[in-house]
């Protein structure tokens, strides 16, 4: 079970876990599942809360993730509030626009940032495992690229000289913060599958 209603994230996670020989479901398959309020102070707290509540509701092993964007020049903002940075109903474009406005005038050498994804795997019996993936980068001066979602158009991967939005899904899934977290999550899921 992938504890997400975000169709972009569902597709990306299904690609990352697709060859495990398991049936992958999302919250779209459980319309009566609760909306878990992600009110934790950390990505870890949010990921664990959502995984535990959805595993309990569905009776299925559940994977949940939460991602934060930590920008050095902004004292770590937007951090855990990345998805709602420009407000509760903000679009991806709204969030990127706010970030770029706050970064206006920040010189290239001070635009460092990192994405941190925390993935939590919970079983209906209450077992919880947590892993993390990090991707270091730089905030662009303007959006570039049409792929991906969220902050991808403004997050430059220095060693590639491209934003995440300029990468193909396959390229992104080899290097992203989410890919790094889910590479670790895959091993836990594989072990759980063997144990069953």
Which helices and strands occur, and which strands form pairs?
Elements: H1 7-17, H2 43-58, E1 62-71, E2 78-79, H3 92-103, E3 112-122, E4 128-139, E5 155-157, E6 162-163, H4 169-175, H5 177-195
Antiparallel strand pairs: 1-2, 1-3, 3-4, 4-5, 5-6
In words, what does this structure look like?
With 196 residues, the chain is α+β, with helices and mostly antiparallel strands. It has one domain: Maf protein (Alpha-Beta Complex), CATH 3.90.950. Helices cover 33% and strands 20% of the residues. It is built from 5 helices and 6 strands, in the order ααββαββββαα. It has helices at residues 7-17, 43-58, 92-103, 169-175, 177-195, and strands at 62-71, 78-79, 112-122, 128-139, 155-157, 162-163. A hairpin with a 5-residue loop joins strand 3 (112-122) and strand 4 (128-139). The two termini are 16 Å apart. The mean pLDDT is 91.
SS elements, strand count: 6
The number of domains: 1
> Which word captures the global form?
globular
Residue runs with pLDDT of under 50 for 5 or more positions:
none
- Which sheet architecture does the biggest sheet show? 6 strands, antiparallel
CATH architecture: Alpha-Beta Complex
Strand content: 15-25%
Number of distinct helices: 5
Question: Remind me, CATH topology?
Answer: Maf protein
- Radius of gyration over alpha carbons? 17 Å
Q: Summarize model confidence as the mean pLDDT.
A: 91
Helix coverage percent: 25-40%
H-E order: HHEEHEEEEHH
Q: What top-tier CATH class fits best?
A: Alpha Beta
End-to-end gap:
16 Å
Neighbour order of strands in the largest sheet = 2-1-3-4-5-6
